[in-house]
Amino acid sequence: xxxxxxxxxxxxxxxxxxxxxxxxxxxxxxxxxxxxxxxxxxxxxxxxxxxxxxxxxxxxxxxxxxxxxxxxxxxxxxxxxxxxxxxxxxxxxxxxxxxxxxxxxxxxxxxxxxxxxxxxxxxxxxxxxxxxxxxxxxxxxxxxxxxxxxxxxxxxxxxxxxxxxxxxxxxxxxxxxxxxxxxxxxxxxxxxxxxxxxxxxxxxxxxxxxxxxxxxxxxxxxxxxxxxxxxxxxxxxxxxxxxxxxxxxxxxxxxxxxxxxxxxxxxxxxxxxxxxxxxxxxxxxxxxxxxxxxxxxxxxxxxxxxxxxxxxxxxxx
Length: 317
Ligand code: C5P
What we know:
Elements: H1 7-11, E1 21-38, E2 44-62, E3 67-73, H2 86-98, E4 104-110, H3 120-135, H4 142-152, H5 156-161, E5 164-168, E6 173-176, E7 184-190, H6 197-209, H7 221-229, H8 232-238, E8 240-241, H9 244-250, H10 254-263, E9 268-271, E10 278-282, H11 285-296, E11 303-309, E12 315-316
Parallel strand pairs: 1-8, 3-4
Antiparallel strand pairs: 1-2, 1-12, 2-4, 2-5, 5-6, 7-10, 7-11, 9-10
Helix pairs in contact: 2-3, 2-4, 3-4, 6-9, 7-8
The site of cytidine-5'-monophosphate (C5P) has 12 residues, from strand 2 and helix 6.
């Protein structure tokens, strides 16, 4: 006969976390971004390959009597901290899903610039989901978090996942790309200002109405093969971004940034997502540092830095 359980064993209250929960979340770039036609719901059908790169925001969640957000770093004073902020929207979405009160004191340390095509806002939303899930002891799995993430924004599920992943639908359906472990080395040229993602998509629709052809909706096989081969020259030839024409149309000086990166010896350059950040693929970390040094001196970007990918998505640290 087994001993009956000591009632304390199962009546013991679940531990509530009183200490802060700190979550680090990366920026994303799109190695391949194929934009289909405009859908009825105002989104475009996408086939994209995301990669999370080592440029991070950090979100700290503490217990609180209401839901508050404070911040420091990139965008402080510009970014609204009210219910329109994706962090607050994500915390509320998790609370609604789990039946919790959305009470937390959230603090964001931002390094990822705003409206840069690096999904900084979506990254912060992913961080809020992961942090509040721990703070509130709701313990959802990554799949459930990704489900809530999709209701907050198209890129948010990827930033919960991280790594390199194929995104379909409006970008919210993500599955990891299987490839042998390898670090890709990027130079990231951050512009002095931002571009609105909806405006860039609208500009693409306008250019297409004016005759810019739709690209064929095929899975990015060459890119997948390049990732498996771990050959930067092959990957360089397979990078593609349908939003680039629209970003360049709205911000023509980015052509100079792209040319400058190639002049500095990068293997390839492209606009990241909806821009205006430009990213340059390099052969290895030393090459990336050399390109970044030279590009930084050319005055074609506000900040030039290096970042490797893929890295993990939003994680408690
Ligand atoms: O999903 P998210 O809120 O991040 O998207 C921001 C905007 O980008 C959308 O309102 C839409 O204008 C545009 N978008 C799009 N098609 C997608 C993703 C985003 O048109 N697949």
